[in-house]
Amino acid sequence: MAIEEGAFKTRGIDLLWTDIPEGTGKMNALLENGKAELAIILTEGVVKSITESNPVKIVQEYIATPLQWGIHVAADSKYQTVRDLENTTVAISRFGSGSHLMSYVNAQNHGWETSSLNFEIIHTLDGAIEALKLGTADYFMWEHFTTKPVVDAGTFRRLADCPTPWPCFVIAATESFLEEHKEILRHILEVINLYTSEFKLIPSIDRTLSNKYGQRLEDVQEWLRITEWSQSQLSAETIENVQDYLFKLELISHKLEVDKLITSL
């Protein structure tokens, strides 16, 4: 909305937005390869990537509430409960993605042996639809509301939700962008924060989103109700919690000092 309304251009900033359907793993690769300077990205995914030497810093928390990860099977699947999915194959967009990391969180929640998780890389939601239909994967974890039209169409059946144990999205920047354009980044965040602080107050925003994304109005209203935007930096306690979780699940080999992961502008 800010781009469409020229809010960045009035400050002399030509900000280009690109959707990345492959998700967080692909975004991390784009940041690492210098093909993107900024990303709105899953917290756990970028933390893992930074511990693996991706030269990126978290510059702000973006969504302060957990992400609701739906656990989906094919509509005609024999699996009826999440417990039935132990020792089956989970579809993931790529290693290091949210769908990959959250499959470990879900496994731990149910007391499964995480070392025995099996994965099928499917890249996108369309890939997951195909994999579950063909039986090359048994379940797929993806954001509840994004996936709900697929559930409503009778393609997927959702067995349960698995919320992230932390605020779900952050804004991350490459270290090179921070070094060269810190003042520009301050302006970008000012614009974003102005829009997010007033987002829920926009008249008929629920209908606008419903029409734009082909979602049922009641689903958009529920999403707005449970989602809170942030205009501040991620807390040190949250960073420690994310690292503790990933380390315990053996998804990262070591933890970093907080200032290696976040920065203040």
Written account of the structure:
The chain has 265 residues and is an alpha/beta fold. The protein folds into two domains: 9-66 and 167-260, D-Maltodextrin-Binding Protein, domain 2, CATH 3.40.190; 68-163, Periplasmic binding protein-like II (D-Maltodextrin-Binding Protein, domain 2, 3-Layer(aba) Sandwich). It contains nine helices and eight strands. The strands form two sheets. A five-stranded mixed β-sheet has the order 5-4-6-3-7, sandwiched between helices. A three-stranded antiparallel β-sheet has the order 1-8-2. Helix 2 (43-51) packs across helix 9 (236-248). The mean pLDDT is 96.
Offer a quick outline of the entry.
It contains nine helices and eight strands. By secondary structure, the chain is of the alpha/beta class. Strands 5-4-6-3-7 form a five-stranded mixed beta sheet, with helices on both faces. The protein has a three-stranded antiparallel beta sheet with strand order 1-8-2.
Q: What's the number of structural domains?
A: 2
Main β sheet profile: 5 strands, mixed
Chain-averaged pLDDT: 96
* Rg computed from alpha carbons, rounded to a whole number of angstroms: 19 Å
What is the CATH-assigned architecture of the largest domain? 3-Layer(aba) Sandwich
**Uncertain ranges:** none
Work out the helicity level: 25-40%
Could you say which structural class the secondary elements and strand pairing correspond to? alpha/beta
Strand order of the largest sheet: 5-4-6-3-7
In percent terms, what proportion of residues is strand? 15-25%
Distance between termini?
A: 24 Å
CATH superfamily of the largest domain: Periplasmic binding protein-like II
